Amino acid sequence: MDDKLVDLTEYDDAFGRERPEERGDFEEVPDGKYEVTVEKVELTQAQSTGNPMIKWMLRINGPRFTNRVLWRNSVITMNTLKYVKTDLHLCGIDLEKLSNLPLPLERLLDLRLSVTKKTKGENENIFFNSRIDNGQTPNKSGQSAGDSAIPF
Predict the structure, then answer these.
(1) Structural domains for the chain
(2) Residue burial 75-113, b: 16+ Cβ < 10 Å; e: rest
(3) Which of 47, 87, 142, 146 could be 127's S-S partner, Cβ–Cβ 3.0 to 4.6 Å?
(4) pTM
């Protein structure tokens, strides 16, 4: 890589005024229920298997662990279709064909969800409990099949 190709001089003055953040060791987000906002969602492939996967970036709304991020990867296989469809439905996405998934992904951004983080051994899993509409209490009727769904 040729360092001369990247000109950073326009940032020099602002960089000089910045102060590094003080960072201690971050406490791990413990298992439990959290209200989150979908900050990013993309259709990609699992590195280990090459299977299609929905990658979710979920930002915690608080009051504890505000602005921390939870990641959820929904790998798509013949065995997980039921759970993927259930989670998409809970998020307000009802598709006739899974191949139509890339079209409505943008609608998932800024969606507020109630989720549960569970750890078993070294594996973490994030389960979607319900969608939160307009700051109202989560709708208990939209339980995710994930609570008893895919084993770790």
Answers:
(1) 29-141 (2.40.50)
(2) bbeeebeebbebbbebbebeeeeeeebeeebeebeebbb
(3) 146
(4) 0.71
